[in-house]
Input
Amino acid sequence: MSTNQSIALLSEMAVFAKVVEAGSFSEAARQLGATPSAVSRSVARLEKALGTQLLQRTTRKLRLSDSGREIHARCQDMLDAAQSVLAVSGSFEAEPQGQVRVSVPKAVGRYLVHPHMPDFLQAYPKVDVLLRLEDRYMDLIDDQVDLAIRITDKPPPGLMGRPLMRIEHLLCATPGYLAAHGTPAHPQALREHSCIYLGETPGDARWRFRRQGKVVNVEVRGRYAANHTGVRLDAVLRDIGIASLPYFIARPALEEGRIVQVLPQWTFRTAYCGDLWALYPATRHLPPRLGAFVDFLSRRLAAETTLAEADRSAR
Output
């Protein structure tokens, strides 16, 4: 494709990106001040020029095709670059403004992100935050999300991001429960205890431990299971049993001595352990509002004490 052809398609690329952002031709047309038919023709011209179908149209929603997903990322790069040019020229307001739509797991959102939001909103008075607390996987484009905060080894294909902190889990119980029922000295001893677990899948009752290269799996049971970490913490505090908890939720009660760690010499492993990432579409030009949010959250969560740090300071 020649340079002249590429230039001629720039407006169609911008319209295509707006359709994806808006989620429909009619909403994109409303935002652009055009008619739905004009927007549809613009996307059709782009598809014809590129020789590929960009959108899969259904009666309920639009979905990006595989090629459309890749092309949309490039079109978004183009728009972000245009905003950067305007910022340099002074025509674009450099101060972060607009809405940041964030998807975050429930516990992380409630206990790690939400507490810092008053300070963020005060620091950036022109930025609004839409926090969506959901444990299910969310597609940034289909679900119209700017940023996803997730536990992952590395950003999935098509996304980039920044690691925020380490998420660790441990087993906890009250001193009163352990005095009444005994303190387990080995993971297998948990079979004799009331264990409070997630309870969403059969695998949630299969607890995995590691110590000096040795791995031990234990099928636990108990009369109470709950898929909310705050509820499991409260159940521990009420002497119901031994629960698996993220360290960031258990830490205040641990520091106050209301609960203690069980089997501290073993590393407790779960699918919810790992690095917490802020993920966003791969782009060289992060919008100012999104960059401000990621930078702010990165600074705040970097100050969170991890279980490993707590263990080192206790020695």
